[in-house]
């Protein structure tokens, strides 16, 4: 066999292997970061936010948690009381409190700041899972530092 024939064979075999593996690669890309969400079992806005995460490729697991236990979980994991909302997620070592947009979660995971995580305190109307974005009220996403201090990470203006 000539070198030319071996090269063509290697290319064909390599191409076939890539083609065969591509559905698996596409499937794996559909499962983004794993996030575990602690939430009130009866909260509809929590479920709406979780659905947004899933639609954006996050692998979401949930755990129902009654009010007092959920508040303790938040505080024990570095979420200041003035930053609390209804649900709390943990993704790649970071805490996500409330209706944080997916874009900010992904940005934080890319930037890897030395922080507890992100928070959107309360339930701002029009934030992810809290009604239509085209009717949203202005709100801010806060970066929660390890010392409990916070700083604005992103601002969303009213629609």
Protein architecture, described:
The protein is of the alpha/beta class and 159 residues long. Helix content is 37%, strand content 24%. The protein has a seven-stranded mixed sheet with strand order 2-1-3-4-5-6-7, with helices on one face. The chain starts with a helix and ends with a strand.
- Tertiary shape: globular
**Beta content:** 15-25%
How many beta-strand runs?
7
Given as residue ranges, the uncertain stretches (5+ residues, pLDDT < 50) are: 11-30
Distance between the termini: 68 Å
Major sheet characteristics: 7 strands, mixed
CATH architecture of the largest domain: 3-Layer(aba) Sandwich
Structural class: alpha/beta
- For the largest sheet, list the strands in their spatial order: 2-1-3-4-5-6-7
- Overall tally of domains: 2
Order of helices and strands: HEHEHEEHEEE
Mean pLDDT: 85
Instruction: Please give the radius of gyration in angstroms.
Output: 21 Å
Q: What's the CATH first level of the largest domain? A: Alpha Beta
> What is the CATH topology descriptor of the largest domain?
Glutaredoxin
Total DSSP helices: 4
Proportion in helices: 25-40%
Sequence-ordered SSE layout with sheet pairings:
Layout: H1 3-29, E1 34-39, H2 44-55, E2 59-64, H3 67-76, E3 88-91, E4 94-98, H4 102-111, E5 117-120, E6 139-144, E7 150-156
Parallel strand pairs: 1-2, 4-5
Antiparallel strand pairs: 1-3, 3-4, 5-6, 6-7
Task: Using brief descriptors, characterize the structure shown.
single chain, 7 strands, alpha/beta, 4 helices, seven-stranded mixed β-sheet, 24% strand, Glutaredoxin, 159 residues
């Amino acid at each position: 066999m000539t070198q030319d024939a071996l090269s063509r064979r290697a290319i064909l075999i390599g191409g076939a292997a890539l083609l065969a593996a591509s559905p698996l690669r596409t499937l794996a890309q559909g499962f983004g970061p794993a996030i575990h969400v602690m939430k009130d079992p009866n909260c509809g806005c929590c479920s709406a936010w979780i659905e947004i995460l899933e639609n954006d490729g996050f692998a979401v697991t949930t755990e129902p948690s009654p009010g007092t236990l959920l508040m303790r979980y938040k505080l024990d994991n570095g979420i200041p009381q003035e930053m609390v909302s209804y649900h709390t997620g943990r993704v790649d070592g970071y805490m996500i409190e409330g209706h944080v947009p997916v874009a900010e979660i992904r940005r934080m995971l890319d930037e890897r700041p030395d922080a507890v995580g992100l928070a959107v305190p309360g339930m701002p109307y029009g934030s992810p899972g809290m009604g239509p974005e085209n009717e949203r009220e202005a709100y801010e996403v806060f970066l929660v530092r390890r010392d409990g201090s916070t700083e604005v990470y992103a601002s969303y203006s009213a629609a």
